Amino acid sequence: MFGTPPALIAVAHGSRDPRSAATMAAVVAEIAAARPDLDVRLAFLDLSAPSVEQVVDAVAAQGHTHAVVAPLLLGSAFHARVDLPELLNAARARHPQLQLTQADVLGPDPRLIGALRDRVLDAAPNALPRNLGRRLGVAVAAVGSSSAAANARTADVARRLALLTGWHTEVCFATTEPTVTEAISRLRTRGADQVLVAPWFLAPGLLTDRLVATAPELVHANVIGPHRALTDIVWDRYDAARTTTLALSA
Prior knowledge:
It is built from eight helices and eight strands. It has helices at residues 18-34, 52-61, 78-94, 110-123, 148-165, 180-189, 206-214, 228-249, and strands at 7-12, 40-44, 66-71, 99-102, 136-142, 168-173, 194-199, 219-220. The strands form two sheets. It has a four-stranded parallel β-sheet, sandwiched between helices. A four-stranded parallel β-sheet has the order 6-5-7-8, sandwiched between helices.
């Protein structure tokens, strides 16, 4: 398969919740449909199948000599910086003929903020300030991390959504503070009389269920899921990784 473009291995987090894997399969189906001439595979870091190891082995068996591995992750945390590189190093030892290039994570990218806005508008189609006399508050809800720096980067997502839309926003987390309850209280204090929860998640799962259970009286937007912005970003990451590899090997 000399001269053929690299395969794309899109790597999702994985979850015990089957909705997560189904959503990521739909995401990758849209990614593959955008470039039907390329070999596109979905893999998971943990808890779901197929694993990264299984997909790399299959790509090597297919005869590929190069694959770009694109993390379907919103931030560059432990999974992107440690877990995935370790898996790829082990795969390189198994398949020395297969070049594996890790692409950048999805965020931060302005198009993802636009996708988050779209999910809010899908949940509350009259939420734009010019169409609504009331003031909208959006609690941007993410997983949360033990890293204060990672949480600060997520808080920037809420700020950027506010700049894009004019909505009041506050960040909250499913696993640490501030909680969704605290974010709702802050939004009310700031004058929002319509509050909505916008999950900064690619797929649904136990944590998004926890957010709904904590604030069942509020409208909860859908997760980002399949979205044209996500498709475009992944292919941009693929092209950048492929171009960098070509430049280094020239």
